[in-house]
Input
Amino acid sequence: MASSPEAKRSNLTLRILSSLVLGPLILAAVYVGRWEFAVIVGLLAVLGVDEWLRLVLRRPPPGWARAAAAIAIVAVTIATGCAGAIAGLVVLAAATVLFDIAVNLRLGTPGRMPGLGLPYLGLTVVALLHLRQDGWQPVLWLLLVVWATDIGGYIFGRWIGGPKLAPRLSPKKTWAGLIGGAGLAAVAGAAAIAVLHRAGAAVPAALGAALLAVVAQAGDLAESAIKRHYGVKDSGTLIPGHGGVLDRIDGLLAAAPVFALFTALLDASFR
Output
C-alpha cells in the first residue's frame, strides 16, 4: 500500500528533526576530542551490532555479546593502531566465515550471516578512529560529504525522478538521485576543504567527494540488498524517520574505509 501524502510529510518532518538533534551532537563529539569521539563511535558500534544480529537471527542477541564485540573493536584500534586493527579484522573476517557456516548448519536456515556484522562494522570503526588521529577536520569533511550525498540524493531523486537506479534492491532510488547526490557532495567537499585546509585543493576535493558519494550510495544499496534478503524494511526503529542506526550510517559504512585508505596511501593531511 502506497503511503499517503500526509504520511510522507510526517516522515520527512521526523527525518529533519532527528537530523537536527543528532547532527550537532555528533559534530560536537568529533570536535571535542579523540576519546569523546571514540565513545560515540563505540556506542554506534554497539547499537549497530545489536541491529545486525536482530536482523540476521530474527531474535534479540545476548547483551554481553553485542557490547563485547563493539568494545573489543574500539579497544583493539586504540591499542594497536590502524594497521594492527585491520590485521585483526582480516583474521576476524576469515573466522566469521566458519562461524556463519556453523550457525547455518545448526539453525538449518541457509543465508544467515551473524558473524559478518563484526568486520562490516569494525572496518568503519577502525577507519573513523584512524581519521580522528589526524584531527577533527578529516572526519568533519567526510561527514559533510556523506550527509550532502544523502540530502542531494533525496532532493533530486524526489524532484526529478526518472529511471530507477536499482529497482530490485531499492525501488525509490533513481539515477537523478545518484547524480544529484554526487553533485551536492562535490560542492560540499570543495567548500569544506577551502575553509578547513586551503582553497587551492577545492578541485581535487570536489572530484574526491563525488567519487565518495558514489561509494556511499553503493553502501546504501548494499544494505538495501541485505534488508531485502531478510525481508525487512528498516534495520531498526531507534531513530524516528530514519529507521535504525544501520539505516542512518549505511553510506558511511562504505565511504569511511575508502576515505581512510585514500588518505593513508597519499599521506594526506588537513593540517
Q: What stands out?
A: The longest helix spans residues 63-107.
